[in-house]
Write a structure and sequence with these properties.
CATH topology of the largest domain: Rossmann fold
CATH class of the largest domain: Alpha Beta
CATH superfamily of the largest domain: P-loop containing nucleotide triphosphate hydrolases
Strand order of the largest sheet: 3-4-2-1-5-6
CATH architecture of the largest domain: 3-Layer(aba) Sandwich
GO molecular function, one term: ATP binding
Protein name: PhoH-like ATPase
Distance between the termini: 53 Å
Family: In the N-terminal section; belongs to the PINc/VapC protein family. Belongs to the PhoH family.
Pfam families: PhoH (PF02562), PIN_4 (PF13638)
Helix content: 25-40%
Number of domains: 3
Strand content: 15-25%
Shape: elongated
Structural class: alpha/beta
Keywords: ATP-binding, Nucleotide-binding
Largest sheet: 6 strands, mixed
Length: about 475
């Protein structure tokens, strides 16, 4: 590492294997800084490359990137291989492979044979070799970072996959406007009727901050003002009044909105011009129930979609119970308890048809709902389907892209989840695929998002969510 021995303002990052298996493109995400890969990292990549899991695919992709970087440049490995290239983004640093045996001894409590500890010895040796340079371990493993800091080494998480550093800043899809908003932007307001809806054209400095399909509300003395941003152009915006789904006459499959956010959510779900909807919220806010009710209404009553497809990530909350027998749908049914529970609620809304009528309705509903596994989504194209992705917070951005790009003409995709309940290793609230799509799709004319705030399951569930 002759080039690395020079004192530089750039840092030297030592990557843990889990960083490469989480994001293979991490090799090109460190801009002008250099990267070092211990040989044990390559060994671990080799051990995880087999299989069809996301981790195995990422391990194989990371190996391909490394092969592409060092191919034909074997003589430069000691001094560093440049990461710069037309397809490598902003990376201008170099890649080093630790090929020499380390002479550092770790404390006796840390066994030498463990891969994590071998990586720590590499970090310690590099820190001693380059005292004027900042050597940093990058790892997704919390315990690994703790051990490194206990040994006096710099360590940090891999942050480049974070969509937002603070999820409190995540787009909610809803905005409350005060009276001064109207005073600044509503002086020359124009209003008209179109398709049974009232439209308002505003012009002012605050209009440019509005986003397409964002929900607007203001509490009034007699009735709150509820509207959706229909168009934004410069300092001009058009607001459209929304349908009141809290009124029994507008019930969707017997379901009415119980709060403002639910009303907003149903408006997005029932809007045929919106192809992609994301709903965030804690347990009991009605995400699945509202989505299923809207899906049934648009599939069975309005005939807009041919069938409803529901899928989710199969990550257990407790211990894994092993392999499940049966067909693809039968294997997925234990994961779809939420589907069955909500179908029971929707089936009970038809109180006049009697027991036989409800049984027939239930059979009709089940014939139109297909439960699919994520494992078999690659290469598929869904035409005129209502696709529901449940527990979407457990998806990586790459998996989310794979699913959403399955949508063909006439298909609507709805993602449901709670980013406070992530069960996938190494995923955080900031790097979840659900956070990723909420941030990337905001402001698109054919997408909408609502963060549901209030739980409506029961007083027990609401109290438990607050105090536990």
């Amino acid at each position: 590492m002759a080039a690395a021995r020079k004192a530089k303002s750039s840092k030297l990052f030592v990557l843990d294997t889990n960083v490469l298996m989480h994001d293979p493109t991490s090799l090109f995400r460190f801009e002008e800084h250099d990267i070092c890969l211990p040989m044990v990292t390559l060994e671990e990549l080799d051990g995880h490359k087999k299989g069809m899991s996301e981790v195995a695919r990422n391990a194989r992709q990371a190996s391909r990137f490394l092969d592409d970087i060092v191919s034909g440049k074997e003589a430069q490995i000691v001094d560093g291989v440049s990461l710069a290239g037309p397809s490598k983004g902003m990376a201008t640093g170099s890649l080093f492979l630790q090929t020499q045996a380390t002479k550092i001894e770790l404390p006796a409590d840390l066994p030498v044979g463990k891969a994590d500890n071998q990586i720590l010895t590499v970090v310690m040796q590099l820190a001693q070799q380059h005292p004027k340079r900042e050597v940093v371990l990058v790892s997704k493993d919390i315990n690994m970072r703790i051990k490194a800091r206990a040994l006096g080494l710099a360590a940090e998480d891999y942050f480049n996959d974070q969509v937002l550093e603070d999820t409190d800043l995540l787009y909610t899809g809803v905005r409350e406007i005060e009276q001064d908003f109207w005073e600044k932007n509503g002086k020359d307001m124009k209003s008209w009727q179109e398709g049974g809806r009232a439209l308002y054209q505003l012009k002012g400095p605050d209009c440019s901050s509005l986003l397409l399909n964002q929900m607007i509300w203001q509490d009034g003395s007699d009735k709150p003002f509820l509207a959706m941003v229909k168009a934004v152009e410069g300092k001009t915006a058009v607001l459209e009044s929304i349908k009141d789904y809290s009124h029994p006459k507008n019930a969707i499959w017997g379901i009415t909105a119980r709060n403002r956010e639910q009303n907003f959510a149903i408006n997005l779900l029932m809007n045929p011009d919106i192809d992609f909807v994301t709903l965030l919220g804690q347990a009991g806010t009605g995400k699945t129930l509202l989505t299923l009710a809207s899906a049934l209404m648009m599939t069975l009553e309005e005939k807009r979609y041919t069938e409803i497809i529901m899928t989710r990530v199969t990550v257990p909350v407790g211990e894994d119970i092993g392999f499940l027998p049966g067909t693809e749908e039968e294997k997925m049914m234990p994961w779809m308890g939420a589907l069955e529970d909500n179908l029971d609620v929707l089936n009970q809304t038809d109180g006049e048809s009697g027991e036989w009528g409800r049984a027939a309705t239930r059979d009709l509903i089940r014939s139109r709902i297909k439960v699919k596994s994520l494992n078999f989504m690659r290469g598929r194209t869904f035409l005129n389907k209502f696709l529901i992705i449940d527990e979407a917070q457990n998806l990586t951005p790459k998996q989310m892209k794979t699913l959403i790009t399955r949508a063909g003409p006439g298909t609507k995709v709805v993602c449901l989840g709670n980013i406070a309940q992530i069960d996938t290793p190494y995923l955080t609230e900031g790097s979840s695929g659900l956070t990723y799509v909420v941030d990337r799709f905001k402001g698109w004319s054919h997408s909408g998002h609502i963060t549901l705030q209030r739980g409506e399951r029961s007083r027990l569930a609401d109290h438990a969510a607050e105090v536990l």
